Structures
1.
Amino acid sequence: MVVVMKFGGSSVADGERILNVAKLVSAQKGKKVVVVSAMSGVTDSLIKIAKSVVDLPNSVVEREVDLFCRELAMRQRKTIMTAVTNKSARGKILSQSLELIDKLRVALLGVGYLEDLSPKSLDYIQSFGERLNILVMSGALNSIGVKSTPFTGSDAGLITDSCFGRARPIHQKSKKRVNEVLSPVLKDVVPVVAGFIGADEKGSITTLGRGGSDYTASLFGRYLEADEVQIWTDVDGILSTDPRLVPEAKLISEISYAEAMDLAYFGAKVIHSKMIEPAMVMNIPVRVLNTFKPTCKGTLIVRKQKKVDHVIKAVAVAKDVVIMNLEGVGMMETPNIAGQLFSALGEANINILMISGSSESNLSFVVSESDLSKSMQHLEEKFSKDILKSVSVIRDISIITIVGAGMHGTKGIAAKVFTTVAEAEVNIIMIAQGSSELNISFVVESKDIAAVVAAIHDKFIK
Ligand code: ADP
Ligand code: ASP
Ligand code: MG
C-alpha cells in the first residue's frame, strides 16, 4: 500500500506543528510519500519582497533584502530548534537552510539591481519556501525515528513545461523519473517532497500555480499508482461552504471527483482544482483531513458518491475576478469570432472562468484579475479595431457557484436559487450553468457575497 500525505501551510506553520505532522506520518501504515507546502505566509512574503525590490532605489535594495533574509533565517532557525529534536542533526539542517537563504539573497539582489522580475525569476524565488521546509520536515521525521530524505519536486522527478507560474507536468517523463527515484527507496525511507515546484527540461525551477502543493500530491499519487492521496489541512474536510463565510458550514462526508473539481475551480481553496484529474485518471480515492483533529473522518472524494443528502451540496465563491465585455460590429461579420477570441486567450495561458454571449457583437467573460492586463494586451495584438471596437471591464465582482450532483434533472432548481438571491435583495450580473448540470454559477458584486452565501446556505443546506 502506498499513501501520499500532503500537509498545507497552516499544518506546518511552526516547529510544534511540524513535529505533530511527523507523528501523524509515523502513525500511517504502509509505504508513504510526504508532500509539504511552505510554512504559512512564506510564499506570500517571497512574492511580496520580489515585487517590492524591483521598484526600490538601488541604494536601499541590499538593506531590504538583508532584512528579509535575516527574518526568514530566524523563523527557520526557531522552527528547526523545535521540530528537529535530534540535536546532532540540527547543525547540518541549519547550515543547509542558510545556504539556501544565501542563494535566495543573491536572486533578490539581482532582481532589485536589474529592476526586472521575470516569471522565471519569480518562480525561482517562490521555490525557497518549500525547499526550506522539506529540510525541517524530513529532519523532524528522522528525529522521531522515521527514516526520511528530503526531495525538491524536480529531485523527485517532476518535470514540467516552461510555462513559469502555471507550469504543466510532462506526465510520461515525470512518471518514469519519479519511479526511478522514489520506488527503490519507499520500502525503507519516507521521502519528503516539496509541493508546488518542479523543473523544466533544462532544469529551471517552475511552479504549478498558487496552492499547487495539492496538485503535486495527486501527481505523485498518479505516478506511483498510490492507493490513497490524503490532503491534510486546517478544516475538517470539504465543507458546504467556506467556514470563514458561514461558520456553521457542514462537513461533506463523500463527494464525487466532478463535484469537488467544480467546487475547487470556482473558489473553494481547500483543494486545488487541478489535483482532481490525476487522481481521477487512476481512480485513486482522495481524503481531505484535518491535521488538528486527525480522528475526524474528513471528506472522501471518489468517482461516484454513494448518496446525495441535498440537491445542492455546496456553495463556492471565486473572488478577485473581473468581467471583460467585448464589443464590435466587426465581430458579427467574423466567422467563429468566439472561437478565435478564446483560442487567442488560451494561447496566452489565460483561463476563462465563465462565458456569457448575448449576441455575436457582444461577448462577456470572466477572468482572474491577475490575468486582466495580459488578456487586454493579447486581444489588442490579435484583433484590429475594425473587429473589436471596445473592451470594457467590470471590477469588484465575484462568482458564486452552487454545486450538487442532485441538481441533474431536478426541475425548477435554478428558479429557486435565483428567487433566494432576489429575496436577499442582491442583483445578479451574469449567469451560467455547466452542461453537466452539476453546477450553476452567477456573478454578483463582491459586497453582496456574505448575504448571498448565507441566504443560499440557509435555504438549501442547513
Ligand atoms: P492549506 O494551507 O492546507 O493548503 P488552504 O488555506 O489552501 O489550506 O485551504 C483551506 C482553507 O480553505 C480553509 O481554511 C477554508 O477557509 C477554505 N475553504 C474555502 N472553501 C471551503 C470549503 N468549501 N470547505 C472547506 N474549506 C474551505
Ligand atoms: N506554498 C504555495 C502557495 O502558498 C503552494 C501551496 O501552499 O500549496 O501557494
Ligand atoms: Mg491550499
2.
Amino acid sequence: MNDTEANNAGQTPEPEGLSRRGFLGTGAITGAVLAGATALGGTVFTRESFAAAAKDAKSKVHVGPGELDQYYGFWSGGHQGEVRVLGVPSMRELMRIPVFNVDSATGWGLTNESKRVLGESAKYLNGDCHHPHLSTTDGRYDGKYLFINDKANTRVARIRLDIMKCDKIVTVPNAQAIHGLRLQKVPYTKYVFCNAEFIIPHPNDGHSFDLQDKNSFTLFNAIDAEKMEMAFQVIVDGNLDNADMDYTGKYAAATCYNSEKASDLGGMMRNERDWVVVFNIPRIEAAIKAGKFINLDGVKVPVVDGRKGDDGKDSEFTRYIPVPKNPHGCNTSPDGKYFIANGKLSPTCTIIAIDKLDDLFSDKIKDPRGVVVGEPELGLGPLHTTYDGRGFAYTTLFIDSQVVKWNIAEAIRAYGGEKVNYIKQKLDVHYQPGHNHASLTETRDADGQWLVVLSKFSKDRFLPTGPLHPENDQLIDISGDEMKLVHDGPTFAEPHDCVMARRDQIQPKKIWERDDPYFAETVAIAAKDGIKLETDNKVIRDGKKVRVYMTSMAPTYGLTEFTVKHGDEVTVTITNIDQIEDVTHGFVMTNHGVSMEISPQQTSSITFIADKPGLHWYYCSWFCHALHMEMVGRMLVEPA
Ligand code: CUK
Ligand code: CUA
Ligand code: CA
C-alpha cells in the first residue's frame, strides 16, 4: 500500500515524522481555512520574530539608486484586470499594463486603438486575470508575447512585450470562465492552451439546466498564438482547472476537480480521486486536418470529443489519470520529465512520467495509474509547485501556510518503497499561499535564484488599510540549500500567478516606430482624409462627424483651438512628434470623460460627443516640460 492508498483507506501514514495530518475531510478544510495558519499547530511565529530573523535580508534585495533589477517579473492583477511589471529582486512595480480593466491614465478602454483590441468585449469593464505566461522558442523565453486569461468574461489576451501593450483579445466561444492557461513550449509557442472551467449545457439556451446531462460539458481550448484566433476545442469529462504543456510539443495536461459534475461543494468533494486529463495534440491536429470534427452551437471552430465513450473506453485524444482529490495546480518540471498535479484536498502531489504517456496512448499501459511514478505526502492543501532546475520542487501548502521544498527523484524512490526522506525544508509564509513561482521555472533555463510566493492573506504584515487588506507576495532566496525569506511585497487584489524572466530576455522599445501596427488603422483613416500625421494640424468635417488631427511636441499641441457644432461626434487624433525618450504627452478634454496617452512617436485617437455648447479646455496630463501646465487648447462648441 502506498501513502495515497493508505490515506484513502483512512489510515494516516507518518513517513519520517514529517506528516502533520493525513487525508483531509470537508470539515477540516473549512475549519482550517477559517482559523488561519497559526492556529494549526507547530511553532507560532510572530511578525516581530520574522523581522528579527530577516534583518540581513536587506542586502540581498536592495537595488540601489541607479542600479537595475536582475529579472523582469510579470504579475497578474487578478480581478483588478491588469498585468503588472515588477523588478525582481527589488519587487518594485515598474509599470502597469491595462488589459481587462479601464485605465484613466493611458486611456485603455477609452481610445479607439484599445477599443479595436477589445472588440465586442469592450462592453465589459471588468476582468479577472490569473495566469500570465511568456512565449517561448525551443523551451526558452523569446521575449515576444505574454498571454493571460480572463476568467470573468471568458477571454484570453496577448501583450506585446516590445511595447508592453495588449494587442489582441479573443473571447472563447461555447464556454464560461477561462481559468488555467499555458503555452506550447516546443518547438515554439504555436498554441495558447486554456481551460474553460465551468460545465454548461450545450446549447446553453435554457433548454436544460442539468449538469449530469450528456450535453453538459466544458472545453479544453487551443488558440493560435500568432493570429489570436481559435484553433480547436476539445470536449472533456468533468471540469478543468489548471494546465501545462510538455517539452516535446505533444502532450498538454490539465487538472479536474469536479469529476463529479456536481453543482455544490459537497458534490464536488464526493470522489476520493478526480483526475489529470492528458491531451494528445498531434492526434487532435490530425483529426481536424482529416475533417473529423464537429461545430458546436453554430460556432465555426473545430471541436473534437475527448470524453470517454458510454462503454468507458478512452477517446483517441485523451487519457484520464486518476489523482487525489480536487487537484489544482499542474506544473511541468523544467527537465521535461514530469507533470506534477497538486492535491489540494489531499496532502499529496502526483508525479506523472511524461515519457510513459506514449505507452498510455498506445494502450501498452492499460491502467492509467501506471504512469504515476510518485505521490509524495507534503502537507495540507498543496496548490502549486515550482522548480529550481536542480531537482527540487517547491510546493505551496495553502492550509499549512508553508512552502515545502522536496526532492523529486527521492520522492519517486520513496514511492517505489525505499525509505528516503524527500522533504528538505518547510518554510512558513504569510499567509495561505496560492501560486509560487521560481525564476525561469517554466523554461529549460530554470535557474533556482528566486522564489515568489503569492500569499492570499497579509493579516498583520503591513500597516493596516481598513478592512480590505493587500495580498502579500513574498520573495524567497532559493540560491542556497535553504529557502530564506527576504522580502514582503504588498499587492492589490489579487495576483494569482507571476512569471520571471532574465532582464536580457526582454527587449522593449524606448520610443514607438511610426509604422507600428498598434495604431495602423488610425493611420489608415488619416490617410483617407489626406492627412500626414507627423506634420498636419487640421479639422476634417464629414457630416456630423468631425476628425481633428494634431501633433504634440512639448509643450504645445499643433492645434490650440478647434471649433465644432453641438452634437457632433468628435474624433481627436494626436501624433506625438517628440523624438526624446520618456517625453509622453496626454490629452484630456475636461468634463467629457476623455483621457489618453501619447508616447514619443505614437499616434492615439479618441472619440466623444460634443454634448455641451461653449468653451471647453483640453490639457496635457503627462508632466512633460517646464511649461506642461501651459500645454492646453480650447474646443469651441457652437450651438447647432
Ligand atoms: S489559480 Cu489562483 S491560486 Cu487561478 Cu492558478 Cu491557484
Ligand atoms: Cu505635454 Cu504635459
Ligand atoms: Ca472532486
